[in-house]
Amino acid sequence: MRTTFASVIVCLCLGFVGCADIGSPAEIASASIPGIPSWLQSKIAIYENSQFGTVPSEVWQYRYGGQTVYFIPSPCCDMYNYLFDASGTIMCAPDGGFTGTGDGHCTDFFRTRTNEVLVWRDSRSH
User: Are 80 and 93 in contact (CB under 8 A)?
Assistant: First the structure.
């Protein structure tokens, strides 16, 4: 009985250690990122508050088709990797999916993109 009680106390203490508030990623991400659209800042805040490995770990900015675009690779296999325009509308999926070749709507993206900029990388991934 005494050992069981001690075990319960130890487990409770260990459980509370993980509950310390050190500042949430949403608070960190809520600071405005210069030049990044608010819709993308919102997505990044969601990614940072989600379980690692279930959301994208990087966001890239490019020039493509005469405009600024954002490429967000999916977190895992057989999923499309989407390309967004500056207003947050999905333009296409240049790659990913079951075939790995995307949705077929912007097959020239990887050949013609320019001005690559890493906008965000999940600090938990590196």
Answer: yes
The reported pTM is 0.72
Are 35 and 115 within 8 A, CB to CB?
Answer: no
CA terminus-to-terminus distance, the chain:
45
Q: Does residue 10 lie within any of the structural domains? A: no
* Amino acid letter, residue 87: S
Q: Is residue 59 part of a domain?
A: yes
| DSSP element (H, E) containing 120 | strand 114-121
Dihedral angle computed from the Cα positions of residues 45, 46, 52 and 57, in that order, rounded to the nearest 10 degrees = -70
104 in a domain, yes or no?
yes
Residue segments in the chain with a per-residue pLDDT below the cut of 70: 1-33, 125-126
Domain that holds residue 100: 23-125
